[in-house]
Amino acid sequence: MGRSRPPFRRLTPAERRLWDAYPTGGWVDLRHGRETDASSGGAWGSKGLWGRSRVVRAEVISALVLDRGIGGSGRVPGVRLAGARIVGDLNLSDATIEAKVHLLDCHIAGTVSLNDARTRGVRLRRCDIFRFRASRATVDGLLDLDGSVVRAGVRLDNAHVTGQLRLSGTRVGTPGEAPYREPGADPPEAGSWNGPEGSEEPRTWESVALWAGGLVVDGSAFLRDMRATGGLRLIGARFSSGLYLQGAVVTADGSPAVHADHLQAAAAELGAGFTAHGTVRLRGARIGGVLSFHGAVLRARGRVLHLSHMQADELILLPESIEGEVNLGYSRFGVLFDRPESYPGDVRLNGLTYESLRGPATLADRLSWLRRDPGGYRPQPYEQLAAYCRRIGHEPDARRVLLARQRARRRTLRVPGRLWGRLLDGLVGYGYRPWLAGLWAALLLATGTAIFTQWPPHQIGLDESRHFNAFVYTLDLLVPVSVFEQRGAWEPAGLTQWLANGLIAAGWILATALIAGASRLLRPSNAP
């Protein structure tokens, strides 16, 4: 079957070359000399660089890939174009595209739109693009924008990419910072979304560089070395083979740098130079492998990491630098690998559970970690740390943690409760230091023995002869119930009478403290 005539009155030389090469998918290279990168800073609107010999209308490309310009071919057709200046909007929305589209070092002054389209792999590498949209699109293969500049944002919400998503080295701006809005552009999306907890003002879609809520990528998503002026919105996105942001720099003042609530990924690498100026929010995310911030630079006003209600096999929280509050509340980690410097400000830990702790932190560091919750005393973080210490065989450390829990709780009580708590703490360490009771008893016993040896009491019954023993007499006073029948046989006088009464009272107090402490120690909630 022969070729149909182009549906255009006239084609430029570049368009004619592209039209002729399309049936076989051959390359059309319009680059001059050593010039290879349209995404360089001087590419946009440079008359000398983008002459008429390199102009291709977007509607010509649309006509080709929508199969209106050819009849048939023995080879796979495709648009493979390098170094062209593409004029107008490349609108392929709602289309089913069987041809390959591969643009390299091209300048696209309008919007590339694949909304609701179904297409084979799309590659726009090192291109200068005003805006890229592929909402609800299905890309059977690779979606590649490596090294490109997208000035007014990328939209991939609810899209499905069966291969890889590649945005490595891409520079992405926001719709609010675009140099102009092209004629006939879609109106702004209705409504606005409010910033996460801690945000002082709402932010609209215009502050988002990559809008990809609900995106599904069957392969890996590579966003390495990306530069985004605006946030990355990945709410509910799924990355079956992982999300990789090493070396990316995201600047989103006043809004989240990464807003990825309920994200699902096999792994998430946000380290090795990843830089976020704004909150990284992964509330409710599910990471099947490692979530890593190793070597990241994280800064935000207020909360810098919001990792609550999420799950991950391992969280590596070893940033190069970090500023702001960290929220790990109600999350579950198999391994938490961190260090004391990972938490420069407040840290929310209530509800956090973990199987293992790694890193250089000592028990004192961990106790300081627990005390820095801005919500005040919460028992669960202490019980979780104590259970972990018991599980690894560090019973003394577990008792230290539970003692610290009682001391933290004491600060929340009223005055009588605080006084009784201080007494229990000083006498028996709330039952976690029972040896203190023995120490106090030995001290009182030695004191009483020395004083009653120097000033012995008088015998009450003179009809029988008794031999006084100061040690046994003092011990009988300390025991709540007289065992040696010395109290009724001897009567102290003067100041020693006050000493005897004090020893009796001290004995009752020590016994009560031991019973109260033992009841706390044996309480089932303290079990590992």
UniProtKB/TrEMBL annotation:
Residues 167-201 are annotated as: Disordered. This is Oxidoreductase.
